[in-house]
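Incident log entry.

Two folding requests arrived from the same account within the same minute. Monitoring flagged them as a possible duplicate submission, but the sequences differ. Recording both here for audit purposes.

Request one:
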Amino acid sequence: MSPAPGRSRRDLQDLQNLSRSPLLSYAQKTTQPRAPRRKIATSTPSRYPLLAAFLPNRIVYWLWQYLSHRIGPRHPFLTYAQTDPGKGVYQLEGGDEIRIALAGDWATGTDEAECVAQRIDKFAPHYSIHLGDVYYVGGRSEVDENFLGINNPNNDYDPCLWPSGSHGSFALNGNHEMYARGFAYFDRMLPRLGPRSNGKPEGQRASYFCLENQDWRIIALDTGYNSIGWPLLEYLFQPSCALRPEEIDWLHSIVRPSAHDPRGIILLTHHQYYSAYDFWYPTQAKQIADLFLHPVLWFWGHEHRMAIYQEYGVPGGIRAFGRCIGHGGMPVDLPPPRPEHAACVVEFTDRRHYHNDENLKIGYNGFAQLTLRGKCLTADYVDLCGKTVFSEDWKVDDGKLQCTRAEKYDAGK
């Protein structure tokens, strides 16, 4: 059953088929209405909203927005100071059971994103982590409205607030944050995140970090910073989303994973390592393959779908159990009848049609609930209605991960 729409937030149809091109993302941004439409179940969504960007009264504004945000240097890449006591490594707190909420591509400002936020709140996580992408282009007004819950006086939408964990909240960098050269992400979002002390966030000092205890290490890396290139030239030369040298040095000198570490490894990035349906970004998996000799559990977003993969890895790259959870707030892509890349085997994907008042043929939004109990981990994949569609248990033994249970719930077809 679908949640009752609030009718006060952004419409999904304005975000459907959003291009991963900076130029076209800015174009689609200019076509959004100032307020939600009046929705009826039999209405037909606009088929060609992007064409409205070429109207005389919009094309100048579109191009000015694109050039003013895209021309110039990116925000400096932030690193941890030598005086920082932990240098980005934080101890997991919360007692014998630690709850962590993960969601990707959530910051859209839609009714569905708000529903996911409410479900996360009900989970009462100790930590909440956004895997990246603030739409449309990660500018200040969008960071405020779609992530920080600050009202935008230039439209009639209600804002959305990323749900906080009781012990901390973090956010990865995505390609859409970098479409505005990362300034709002680094200067506006990160200071309001990080571990909490006396009920207040201390600030997330960089776009990469590690949460750990005696049994687990959750390592988050920035694949977004190198997801853009020079304006216009980036369409000829696909950015690799490679890790920055500072991140790799931090892994080697501060985190220092090794084959002798008995803890289980969970990696978090925005971009997918591999995919049965979409483009691959294997560069980062090759950059750090020497550091992770055992298979890891790897969560990513970027693709607007939920998919559970069997173990896979490219030659020279990390072996990983991939988990795509980029279905936090965007219109969710339904899986095609046949995957484009059969080499990476999909163990489960949510094929249900989300019945919505915009008459869109899309899937269900949702997020992942991680619960750590000693050497055991439970991952529940929950939709915006609160239904668990897939659940798995893991156990770590001398650094090696073992799946002890994988249960597919009746998610329909």
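Request two (distinct sequence, not a duplicate):
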Amino acid sequence: MNQSVTAFFEEISGKRIAVMGIGVSHIDVIRMLAGKARAVIACDKREASAFESALLDEFGALGVELRLGEGYFDRLDFDILLRTPGMYFNLPRLSEFRDMGGIVTSEMELFFDLCPCKTIAVTGSDGKTTTTTLIAEMLKASGKTVHLGGNIGKALFPEIMKVQPGDFAVVELSSFQLISMRQSPDIAVITNVEPNHLDVHGDMQEYTDAKRNLYSHQNAFGIAVLNSDNEVTRSFVPLLRGQCRMFSLKDKVAGSWLRADGMLCYTDYSGETTELFNKKDIRLPGEHNIANYLTAIAAVWGIVPTLYMNEVARVFGGVEHRIEFVRELDSVKWYNDSIASSPTRSIAGLKAFGKRIVMLAGGYDKKIPYEPLAPYLVKYVRLLILMGDTAAKLEAACRADVGYNGDNPVIIHAKDMEEAVQIARRETSPGDIVTLSPASASFDHYPNFEVRGRHFKQLVNEL
């Protein structure tokens, strides 16, 4: 076993550890820590009725103490706290615990502290999951052992004992995870930075600073992959300590770029350019997915032979909830783009179809502006079906746009997803495309975008 891991387990053997949040990423963490720490306390604001009884029974058999529902965070009688990414790092209660001498960390921070292999981490406002998956697929195609996880839905810390020095850890990181990170990956990838999660971060500066944290602890041997087409990420270049690789859909750069004839290319620092494959060879639709491939190429350049990059482009069919084809019914195609929880994500999805479509939008309000989305609604949407907390804001932004004339798009409100799907069914004709592209988070009606997307798919498949 990795000596660092052995030393860590020895260190916590006399400690009381609280794990905040019993979500997907923490269940295996709780199982792993049980029996290794003096005590493990699993805390969650949800009541016991929200969990499967078999899981709670299992935790009981492992000796895990449960603190559920109201009062789950009342007592600070532990030494170490592992916060869930959704728990804001600057929460006053966490600050109080730190002031008492307590240790606040996360499973991802522990993984980075103890990981013996090369790490590639991806963050950004858009395209994180697809880019992270593409990097992992390219590495695996070339024969590498890959540990894929993070914000993509899988905790990596429980795998730490399996990780070997020659492996690769490929990790998606959100701003909530990054805000407290004090270690950077070997290769730091930032897809773009646009307004997002301002309901939690409060202002754009804190959100941007969290994204910058991905590369800020790199040394001279680190590599940063940045978006040349994004103003915020371009501003990061002078702050880098290691090598910078850019990617661009618009210009030739030192890195990966899209040539005018559709060829994806890579230019190294000597000026030598390698042609890879044409954008028409990529199975995934949309210009944003070309950008995702350019990002992944820059990240694995020098590690993965170009042969395997080309192979992934031809065969990779995409990730669930990201312009995912659901079904065709009466010559109407239905797509699930539930991941589109911000305006920029929805814009990318709209541009992918190349025609005017029917769009289902709305959800939880993250306090981000919708005015930048409005011109794309006017240009690409024939019928806009709105629901959720942001419905009024989306309509107001659309009607205020200079190109809006009263019926482009036609706007209809629905009380929930069921009604929205029924309206779309009623108002479509052969040749139409319907997409769920909320431009909003899911938390007004769903615990996450995955549950929202699967509900949408269920409703569509039942039509």
